[in-house]
Design goal:
The chain is α+β, with helices and mostly antiparallel strands. The protein has helices at about 1-20, 25-50, 55-80, 85-95, 120-140, 160-175, 215-240, 240-245, 250-275; strands spanning about 150-155, 180-185, 195-200, 200-205.
Length: about 280
């Protein structure tokens, strides 16, 4: 659902770019989708299904079908830019995707199907990706091997996020090597942990036996510096009468929400730093 929904966005942007003769934008759009979403994410997220001997046959078949069908559309999208390469690959992919025809040159250029737009799937995948990036960032900065299984604690999840955590567990296990996932409320006691923020939710990796105290304090201070710089920038914008008067109300509201989110993030990280100092 997510990759097909994202594909509609790419089709729309590609059609606009080509019709406007903005081949630079067309190249950027097709590259961003193919590399950042299809290869980096969907292909990797397909592996837990395809490599799981316990996965049902229908799930595997559906995943393979989506991989191939999205690739076939990508080839048609990219054909004006790299015709010889797309023709060669399309000749092999088209039969697998159930598409008949002698050549990609005679195939219709992809059109947007608004019925395939799925904002909920997009929101869910954005949340999953931010969780994976947060866990990987903690492991990378703390020199914890990515392959080392670690327990994960999610604090202050919404009901929707709690449901997403359950359905996304196989992907989190595969891409971040989680040992377990525990959900806690905002006021529940937590162990001293490395922390990453996903909106109002916190991702915690307990520190016991995992990290160096000085290194984690350095990491937290670096993140605090970044957030405080963001706070200073947003405050300056919101304290500027010209911005408040001239900016659309939606933009002002967005900046105010961002300010509240970053302020909460600073408070959480400062509290976490105090925990680390007490170790």
């Amino acid at each position: 659902r997510w990759i097909i929904s994202e594909l509609q966005v790419t089709i729309s942007s590609m059609r606009y770019a080509i019709e406007s003769y903005r081949f630079d934008l067309a190249t950027q759009n097709i590259y961003a989708f193919t590399w950042d979403k299809y290869c980096d994410w969907y292909l990797e997220l397909s592996k837990p299904v395809l490599n799981n001997p316990e996965a049902v046959a229908a799930a595997k078949a559906g995943t393979r079908r989506t991989l191939v069908q999205v690739l076939e559309v990508l080839l048609r999208l990219a054909h004006p830019l790299i015709p010889f390469i797309t023709e060669e690959i399309w000749q092999r992919i088209a039969p697998l995707a159930g598409v008949s025809g002698a050549t990609i040159m005679l195939q219709p250029y992809p059109a947007v199907c608004s019925e395939l737009d799925d904002p909920l799937a997009t929101a869910e995948m954005n949340w999953v990706m931010r969780c994976i990036q947060g866990i990987r960032r903690i492991k990378g900065e703390m020199n914890i091997p990515l392959s080392r299984p670690v327990p994960i604690i999610l604090v202050n999840t919404t009901e929707q996020e709690a449901n997403w955590a359950i359905t996304a567990k196989p992907y989190l296990d595969f891409l971040t090597h989680t040992k377990s996932i525990t959900l806690l409320g905002a006021n529940d006691p937590t162990p001293e942990s490395a922390i990453a923020l996903v909106g109002d939710m916190q991702i915690l990796i307990p520190l016991a036996g995992l990290i160096d105290k000085a290194a984690e304090l350095k990491r937290l201070n670096k993140e605090l510096l970044r957030l405080r710089n963001d706070l200073e920038r947003i405050n300056a914008k919101l304290n500027n009468p010209s911005f408040i008067e001239k900016a659309p109300a939606a933009v002002v509201t967005k900046e105010q929400a961002r300010l509240a989110e970053i302020t909460l993030g600073v408070e959480n990280l400062e509290a976490q730093a105090e925990k680390i100092k007490a170790l």
